[in-house]
């Protein structure tokens, strides 16, 4: 190990030079991608957010009517819900709070993140495939978990569940 004279950082072999080359390669790759990739992803996410908010408001209204009709959720105390859901309680509660506009927000986050990440993955990989769909699902699940207040390893499991769900939907969509 040697110490760099200018920066004072420790260097093993020629790591600093290798890192500089890697950075240059990344900058060149990013320049080749062009701005339309990111514009397209932002437009896809924005479009999905708008549609999903309306879907969330509709779903929240339907859930409210069903819950009021059958007296669902009024009989279950918060402690029982917490014991059933464990670390997933914030996520479940955000979908069950009626009238708080959390469901439309959640729908918008799910669809917007999914569309934006899928668009970027499609442009990076050059094709629409199940891997791009699963990466988008994972990112969507992780972002939704964080927004709803979840903490801990459950965040990754929600991402994995969303990835499997997205991958399954993609495969079903190919068969139809």
Tell me about this structure.
With 176 residues, the protein is mainly alpha-helical. It has seven helices and two strands; from the N terminus they run E-E-H-H-H-H-H-H-H. The chain has helices spanning 15-33, 35-70, 78-85, 89-96, 102-125, 130-148, 154-175, and strands at 2-3, 10-11. The chain has a two-stranded antiparallel sheet with strand order 1-2. A hairpin with a 6-residue loop joins strand 1 (2-3) and strand 2. The N and C termini lie far apart (60 Å). The model has no long low-confidence stretch (mean pLDDT 78).
Look at the structure and give the mean pLDDT: 78
Kindly provide the radius of gyration, computed on alpha-carbon positions and rounded to a whole number of angstroms. Answer: 22 Å
Order of helices and strands: EEHHHHHHH
For the secondary structure, the number of strands is 2
**Low-confidence runs of at least 5 consecutive residues:** none
Sheet with the most strands: spatial strand order: 1-2
How many strands, what sense, and barrel or not for the largest sheet? Answer: 2 strands, antiparallel
| DSSP helical segment count | 7
3D shape: elongated
Termini separation: 60 Å
Strand proportion:
under 5%
Question: What structural category characterises the helix and strand content?
Answer: mainly alpha
Helix content: over 70%
């Amino acid at each position: 190990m040697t110490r760099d004279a200018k920066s004072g950082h420790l260097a093993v072999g020629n790591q600093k030079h290798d890192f500089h080359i890697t950075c240059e390669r990344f900058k060149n790759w990013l320049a080749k991608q062009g701005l339309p990739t990111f514009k397209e992803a932002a437009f896809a996410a924005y479009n999905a957010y708008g549609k999903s908010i309306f879907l969330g408001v509709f779903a929240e209204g339907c859930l409210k009517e069903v819950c009021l009709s059958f007296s669902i959720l009024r009989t279950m105390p918060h402690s029982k819900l917490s014991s059933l859901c464990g670390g997933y309680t914030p996520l479940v509660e955000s979908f069950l709070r009626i009238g708080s506009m959390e469901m439309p927000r959640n729908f918008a986050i799910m669809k917007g993140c999914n569309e934006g990440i899928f668009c970027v993955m499609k442009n990076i990989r050059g094709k629409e495939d199940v891997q791009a769909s699963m990466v988008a699902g994972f990112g969507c699940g992780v972002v939704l978990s964080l927004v709803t207040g979840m903490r801990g390893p459950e965040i990754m499991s929600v991402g994995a569940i969303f990835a499997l769900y997205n991958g399954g939907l993609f495969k079903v969509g190919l068969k139809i």
